[in-house]
Every structure is written in C-alpha cells, then in structure tokens.
Write a structure and sequence with these properties.
Radius of gyration: 25 Å
Number of helices: 10
Number of strands: 13
Oligomer: single chain
Strand content: 25-35%
Number of domains: 1
Order of helices and strands: HHHEEEEEHHEHEHHHEEHEEEE
Structural class: alpha+beta
Shape: flat
Largest sheet: 7 strands, mixed
Length: 304
Amino acid sequence: MENVSVRTINELFVQKINSPEGLLKVAQEGGVFIRQKLREVSFARKIIPPQYVTRADLQRSVNYDGLVKIVEIEPDSKAMTVNFRGNPTTNYIVGERFEIPFFMISSEDFQKTEEELLAYDMPLTEVIERNAVLDIQKIEDGAFLGQIESAIAVEEAVTPNSKSITGSFSSDGTIARNDLKGLFDLLDGDELKCETILMSSKMFNRLMLYPATTVGDAIGSEQIINGYTYSTVFGRKLVVSNKTSLLGDNIYAFTSPEFFGQFLIQNDTKFWIDKKKNIFTLAAYESVGMGIGNTRSVAKLSLS
C-alpha cells in the first residue's frame, strides 16, 4: 500500500477541523500523541514517577485560589538500651507535612491559516513534536531542577558541603571516580542510599573515556565498539538528558522516590484547538505539582 503523502495528511486535517465533531476528534488524537511523547523525554518523570490525582485528593490553598496536595512526612524515631528497672524516653509524635502546589505549563498558541497549511510539505504533528512537546518538558524539567537546587541550598545553609561538592575533570577528560564516590557518600553517609544519578549527554560521553584497565577489560573492550550501553553506572540507575543548558557540568544524585518527594499530575497533557474563519489555533498544556519532602535526599557534584 502506498504511503499517504504529507499534503494529503494536511488536507484531511483541514477537513476535520471544519466541523465541531472534527475539532473534538483532532483534540483527542493530539492529546494521546502528546502524552506518549512527553513521557519519553522528561527526565523529571524518570526520577520521580508521576502520580495522578483527582479533586478528591486535593485541598484548597489558604494562600491563593488554587488546589494543593498535603503530604504527610513519616515521623523520626530511635531505639535505645534500657535496663530492667529503667524506662525509655518518651517521644511525643508530631506529624510533619508539606504542601505541593500545582501550576500550569502551556506551549505557545500556534496559528496557521487553512491556505498556508495546504502549502506545507510537513505534517502538523511535526510542529507539535518539535515545538510544543519539547517546550513543555523543558519547563517541567527546569521547575524540577529549581526545587532540587532549593533543597540543596537549605541543607548547605545549615551544614556547608553536606549536599554539594566540587570536582575537576581528570587530565584525560574522565570524571574522577573519587569525585563520584564523594557524590554517592553525600547520601550513603547520611542514613540514606543513592539510587539514581542524573547527568547531561555531554557528561555521559565522558564515561566512554575510561580505559579498559579502569572499568574492567571486558567492559572496556565493549565500550570501544558499542559505547556505554548500560542503564546503571557503579550500581546506580543512570538518567541521561540532552538538556545540557539546564544541567551544565553537574551530576545530581537522588534517593529512591519514597524518601524524596512526589510528582503529581492534576490535568494530564492536553491538546487544545480552535478555528475562527480560516485561522486555526492549537496549543498543548498540563497542570502538575512537584514537592520535595526530604531536603536531605538530593546531592550535587559540580565539575570543571
């Protein structure tokens, strides 16, 4: 069967949006497309798997017109030795909690006339994929990193160098293993466990510089042929992103999500489309919330 040409796809799209039923169907189809693509590219969602919430799960904010999620924090505890005539100390439990606000992320409103669309040799979905989806996920990841940096700053204000260290690239361009060990120790040495690390693709490329004698002959030989193809590094889950502009020369470390925070979705990514006269407008948007309940659960290595 012959492939449908791009021009035919655009013509069918124009025919659909000329009726209310067609507008609704295009919006639904676009929403499915966007949700599938967004989950593939957002590194925040790989570190904290998102959870869906409904109105019944949320509370009204006392500070503004909007909904929030109140999340409970597990109270701390300890054990002690007690002789047969003694009694343990009393710990009156005080339940701590934190608030996760929601915010909307929207793409630009894209506009095009019917006549101009028919002159295009590119399907409309290409515009969504390359612009709307990528713009949304970059803002989403930027908001996530903003919360990470705030959490690190809170801990550093109390104890300097407790959650952030600096290092230097080795003379051969590799990431010094002592620096990675120091990053892991910021979590492993604080009664937690480093489970995941996040780095840019530019930083990831440096893993290929380790010689065979450093990482083991078999692995080193394989890297020469296929590159670094593993989903873990030094036993930690590895998340790599091409958003170097956000990550810079930093490597972030995280505990498992249950000791870290929550990523909530109030309104999943949706596709909106409207048409007036011969001009149609389309956009993608979502409503999400992020919150870190344990500022000790993140750490950062800055390299130069």
